[in-house]
Design goal:
169 residues, two-stranded antiparallel ribbon, 4 helices, 26% strand, globular, binds adenosine-5'-triphosphate, binds magnesium ion
Length: 169
């Protein structure tokens, strides 16, 4: 474990995903809204937490109303409402909180209930392993003693809230 500025981890994840967030012939680009608070360094396994950020942001991006357009169909103002990913960070007491929200399709209760199950995916065979969020949950909860929650409303979007202790005891 090392003392890490989590903003660096989030930013390097965003850098890696940059090509998938920017405007492309078949999708309009995703607006990124960052509200970074004043975070202390956090004692953590940096590489593992970066994997968590990667999984959540990749989901938000892939799932965003864009899927329909990905098979080459043109996008238009009508079939996409400005896709957006918002990232908020803040300290709260002895923990830091990272919230990652998208304004994609959200998910029904039946999906939300199985979200963190290994191998649960709604993606077509061969596209998703369904491991992204179950591994992320393990990293946050088991490896760091933190919490990971999901709030989602169909038709409105999804928010993941991660709490990580600043110091491991
Ligand atoms: N931001 C989101 N909006 C809507 N649904 C989501 C979102 N994130 C996850 N999901 C749902 O949760 C399921 C499980 O996600 P998870 O990341 O574990 O697996 P996956 O993305 O299907 O596959 P993998 O990440 O292994 O490629 C997804 O298939 C999808 O149905
Ligand atoms: Mg995934």
């Amino acid at each position: 474990m090392k003392n890490i500025d989590l903003h660096d981890g989030i930013d390097s994840t965003l850098m890696i995903l940059h090509n998938r967030l920017k405007v492309q012939p078949n999708h309009p680009g995703i607006e990124l809204v960052k509200n970074y608070g004043n975070l202390p360094q956090v004692e953590c396994y940096a590489g593992q937490l970066n994997q968590v950020f990667m999984n959540i942001i990749a989901n938000a991006n892939a799932i965003d109303a864009l899927e329909d357009c990905q098979n080459g169909a043109a996008y238009s103002r009508e079939n996409i409402r400005n896709p957006q990913i918002q990232i908020n960070t803040a300290r709260s007491g002895s923990q830091v909180q990272i919230r990652i929200a998208d304004n994609g399709p959200g998910m029904p209760e039946s999906v939300k209930q199985r979200l963190f199950d290994p191998f649960f995916t709604t993606k077509p065979v061969g596209k998703g392993t369904g491991l992204g969020l179950s591994i992320s949950y393990q990293i946050v909860v088991d490896k760091h003693g933190g919490q990971m929650q999901c709030f989602s409303t169909p038709g409105q979007g999804t928010e993941f809230v991660i709490d990580i202790p600043i110091k491991q005891s």
